[in-house]
Every structure is written in C-alpha cells, then in structure tokens.
C-alpha cells in the first residue's frame, strides 16, 4: 500500500510571494444570466425568427455553473522551470518550453538529500550533495528525481521565506546533471540563493558569477528545477516515486505543478 505525500505549497497571495495572482468568479446566479443572454444573442444572430429561449429559472434553483478566470504568473506556487526560462539557447540549440519536455522526466524514483544544516545565504556545494547522498546509501541512477531538503518550507507564509534560505551552486548543479539527473527540486523560493544575497555579493565584488549561477548553467546543460516544494520532512530518504507533471501549455517558460510523492 502506498502513502501519498503532497509536496506542493498552496497557490495563494502570501507574504512569501512577491508576485500576485488575481481571480475573478462568474458565480452561479450571474452565470445563469450571462449564459442565457449568450444563447439568446447567438440564436438571434443566426435565426432571428426562432422563438426558443433559455431562462435562469430553467436551471435548478436558477443557478448555473461557475467560471473562474485566473491571472497567475508561471513562477508562483510550486512550479517547474523549463530550459527556455534560463536563456534562449541550451546546449547550442533553441531552448525548449515546458510543453516540449519528455513525460519520462516527471515520474521517477526520488531521493531526498538532507541539507537542513546549510545556513541562509550559503551555497550548497558538491561536497554537501555527496555527503548527503552517502548518508542515504543510495546510488544515483539516470532520471532519478533529486529533492533538496533545507527545511525552508516551514517559513511559508512569512516574508523571511523569500530571503532566508541557502541555494544551489553552479558546481553542485553540474555534478548532479553529470550523473544523468534531469529534475532537481528544492523547498525554497528559488533554486539559487535568495535575490538579496546574490545582489549584495555582486554589488560588493562586481563579480557577475554571483548572479543566478545555477539558473544560467541551464544554458549549457538541459535540466529543470522544481521550486517551492513542501513537506519533504514527511518522506524517507529513498523508496518513493515522485509525480510532478507540468501542464501542457504551449510555449511557457514554466508550469505550475501538484508535486506528489508515492511512498512505498
């Protein structure tokens, strides 16, 4: 029997999210009026003499079905970044959008790496990854989904979530991709270190290598990352499958995902 673990944060306007979503609902009552008006308008345009009509009271309790319209940035909530997010080209070819990626990447065995000891603002290094991997006793296989457990999801709902977290180094990202890993997830706002940390280091040193090094590595090697995971504390180190299929929306640089772990 399998236990399902929800690895996704709630998509909502939150102090943890600098971006905002907007929702507008056509409710049951207004929906009934709107739909009946649309039917009448279309019928009149096609067949002016047609006496047939549809009225709100023809629906149970004069209530129709709702319609929500959502304006939502692709990088809100738990989401997957596509290669085109990192740059226009990847491995010398046009970078792929989210709808062009193989399904096989998004359903695979998972391994959780415990990196909770990493301080906010620090890089996750190759050594950090190797030590955490050794502790699991797992030997990475191509297409394993690697989940980086920092514990930052416990700050969800607070402003600190956006600014108090470690981040992946370019070198650690490269090392994982060299093992055949295509999907790397993390329970922080972003895959790199927090924005404020990267900018402060850049302004202090003038070194551009401080700016989104793991993201920009995605121009050289095709891989993707899941940002804003949650509940990694409910997983074992190994022995589970990860399902993280993105929506098939043409041309997007990222997709919202309901990431779920199936624990044996």
From TrEMBL:
Q: What is this protein called?
A: Cyclase
- What InterPro entries is this protein classified in? KFase/CYL, KFase_sf
Residues in coiled coil? none
Molecular function as annotated in GO:
arylformamidase activity
Q: Which GO terms describe its biological process?
A: L-tryptophan catabolic process to kynurenine
């Amino acid at each position: 029997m399998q236990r399902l673990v929800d690895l996704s944060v709630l998509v909502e306007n939150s102090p943890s999210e600098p971006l905002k979503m907007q929702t507008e609902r056509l409710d049951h009552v207004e929906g009934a009026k709107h739909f009946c008006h649309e039917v009448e308008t279309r019928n009149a345009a096609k067949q002016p003499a047609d006496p047939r009509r549809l009225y709100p009271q023809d629906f149970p309790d004069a209530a129709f079905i709702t319609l929500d319209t959502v304006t939502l940035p692709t990088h809100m909530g738990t989401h997957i970044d596509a290669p085109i997010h990192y740059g226009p080209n990847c491995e010398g070819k046009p970078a792929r959008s989210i709808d062009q990626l193989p399904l096989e990447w998004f359903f695979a065995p998972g391994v959780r790496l415990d990196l909770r000891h990493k301080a906010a603002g620090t890089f996750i290094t190759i050594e950090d990854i190797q030590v955490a991997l050794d502790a699991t006793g797992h030997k990475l296989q191509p297409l394993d989904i690697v989940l980086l457990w920092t514990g930052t999801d416990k700050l969800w709902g607070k402003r600190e979530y956006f600014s108090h977290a470690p981040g992946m180094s370019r070198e650690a990202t490269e090392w994982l991709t060299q093992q055949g890993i295509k999907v790397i997830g993390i329970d922080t706002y972003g895959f790199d270190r927090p924005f404020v940390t990267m900018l402060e280091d850049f302004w202090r040193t003038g070194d551009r290598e401080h700016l989104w090094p793991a993201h920009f590595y995605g121009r050289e090697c095709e891989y993707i990352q899941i940002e804003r995971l949650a509940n990694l504390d409910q997983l074992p180190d190994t022995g589970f499958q990860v399902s993280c299929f993105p929506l098939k929306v043409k041309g997007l640089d990222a997709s919202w995902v309901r990431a779920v772990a199936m624990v044996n």
